[in-house]
Design brief:
- With 235 residues, the protein is α/β, with parallel strands linked by helices.
- Helices cover 40% and strands 20% of the residues.
- The chain contains seven helices and eight strands, in the order βαβαβββββαβαααα.
- Strands 1, 2, 3, 4, 5, 6, 7 and 8 form an eight-stranded mixed sheet that branches.
- β1, α1 and β2 form a beta-alpha-beta unit.
- The longest helix is centred in the C-terminal third of the chain and has 18 residues.
- The chain is globular, with a radius of gyration of 17 Å.
Length: 235
Amino acid sequence: MTVPFDAVMLSYDEPRADQLYDRLQRVLGIRVKRLHGVEGMRRAYRLAAEVVDREQFLLADGDFVLASEFALRAVEPLADGVSMRVWRARNPLNGLIYGYGGLKLIRRSALRELGEAVDVLAALPGRCEFTADIAGTTRINQSPYHAWKAGFRECAMLSRGSEYGMGDAETAERIAAWIAGGEGEFAAFAVAGAREGVAFAHEAARVPKLFDQLNDPRWLSARFTAVHGEQAIAG
């Protein structure tokens, strides 16, 4: 099948990334390129721009489960002035459905001009469009640590203030849903992470540079281990 897009998976340490990579290739029906274990989110995104051969490409995280009904042939190219399109994803723990963890169609040239933001892709030049379509599920709960990290990072960034222009009321509703709990494996760790992320955002508001730690995997792992390490090992 000839399509006008490349596809890339960005994975770091997700336990099921290999299986989800195979699924991504199978559902899309094309060869998907992969970057794994790259230190630094901004660096990883910029490297993604260098491994593709086409200007527009699909970008999936290492915990993204692409829906079997996703139709690559139906994907329209980005319009002029649009740097990224985001499909919504289901959160398996709290039922939220929004752009968090969703599939993206992105311009290589925009990534090469990536600016500075805590939520890294919010610093793309040009417009970002969010589609109402759901492309799959974000499997954040592959381990206690990954569930915690998802809740911590997302709620810290939401508490700081959405860099995509989300309104205060919507932001508050999403934080409340993360904190309220949910069902599924390791849900309690996601809730703990969400609560701790909100607290971290309040602390970091006095020293904004601390928000950069949200993109540091070593710092995140150390913070999780310091608080939850023994509990996670015990199951």
